[in-house]
Every structure is written in structure tokens, then in C-alpha cells.
Amino acid sequence: MLEGAFLTINMLSGEKGSGLWWGTKRESVWTENQLDLFTLYTIKEQSILLYGESHLDNIPSYSKEEFISFFKEYAKCMRKFGKGNSLHSVDWLLLASKFIAWWQEGVNLSKSQAADWGLLHLSSGWKENLKRCKELRKDPSMVTRLEYSEWLSNLEPAIIEASHDLDRVLESTIH
């Protein structure tokens, strides 16, 4: 399924416009860019131009402090909203691993790659959940199996632990 944000060039730099979010469950019209800082960074650094002229200069560059602020806010959101019980709950863990990998090693990974990276490089207990997170990304229909639905319903402690790891990684490099 085609999915993602379809924005005018001007919207990339923060101007108003008319764009479309085409998601898994619904579509909505955007009058302003709602993509987060890291998504815009990824587009700017890793996109491939297939045709036409590049407009990547319309995407702002971000400072180390802006990334720190973004990751800290993400960790807070994990603690507030990361309750488990949903297929999308796995994204909290996958993105935490992705952000830690980028912060520590400068590699920008897909969510599935972040699961593999986390299993190899993270030391906290929450990392053991990354294997199942990746399995559900590959085959979302497994969410209907009892073992996966029970696991998802108990995912909140791992999400909280991952949020604290993200905070610790940021703190260890700030000081």
C-alpha cells in the first residue's frame, strides 16, 4: 500500500500549503508539514531523486541541541503514551533502538534494521522484545495469535525501560 506524506515543496520549509497524509487506516489533508525532525533529516540525508530537480535545500538542517530536544521529547512521549496493547506499540521500541543507533554510531536504520542492531548492541532487558517487534513488522497478521496479543498487552514496562535507555544515552554524551 502506498503510504506517507505528500507535500508541496514549500511545506518542507515550514510554509502553509495543501498536502496529503495517506496512512494505513485513513487519509487526511495537511495544511502544514507535520513530519517530525528526524523524518525530515532522513529525507534530506537519504532520499534518492528519481526525476526532476532536487529541492532538499528546502528542508532545514538541525543542530545537535535540536536532536537532543527531539529525542528527549520522544522519550517523554514513550512514558506517557507507550501502553502496549496495539500492533503499533512495537514502534516505540523499534524507534528507540533506531534513535540510539543513530546517536551512538551515526547510522540511520530502518525499523527492522534497528531491531537487529538493538539485539546486537543494547544491554538492557527490553532489547529481547525487538525480535518479536521485527516479526510483527514482517507479518502483522500474527497480532491475532494469542502469544503475540498477550505479549503486546504486557509491553509497557519494556517501553518505559527503553525510554530511560534513550535518556541515558543522551545524558552520557552531553556531559
**Continuous helix count:** 7
- Strand portion: 5-15%
Overall 3D geometry? globular
Secondary-structure-derived class:
mainly alpha
**Widest beta sheet: strand line-up:** 1-2-3
Main beta sheet: 3 strands, antiparallel
| Strand elements, count | 3
Low-pLDDT sequence parts: none
Q: What are the secondary-structure elements, in order, as H or E?
A: EEEHHHHHHH
Using the CA coordinates, give the radius of gyration: 17 Å
Q: What share of the residues lie within helices?
A: 40-55%
Task: Give the terminus-to-terminus CA distance.
Answer: 44 Å
Whole-number mean pLDDT: 92
Topology diagram in text:
Layout: E1 4-6, E2 19-22, E3 27-30, H1 37-46, H2 64-81, H3 90-105, H4 111-121, H5 130-138, H6 146-153, H7 156-174
Antiparallel strand pairs: 1-2, 2-3
Helix pairs in contact: 2-7, 3-4, 3-5, 3-7, 4-5
Task: Tell me what the structure shows.
The protein is globular. It is built from seven helices and three strands, in the order βββααααααα. It is mainly α and 175 residues long. Strands 1-2-3 form a three-stranded antiparallel sheet, with no helix packed on it. It has helices at residues 37-46, 64-81, 90-105, 111-121, 130-138, 146-153, 156-174, and strands spanning 4-6, 19-22, 27-30.
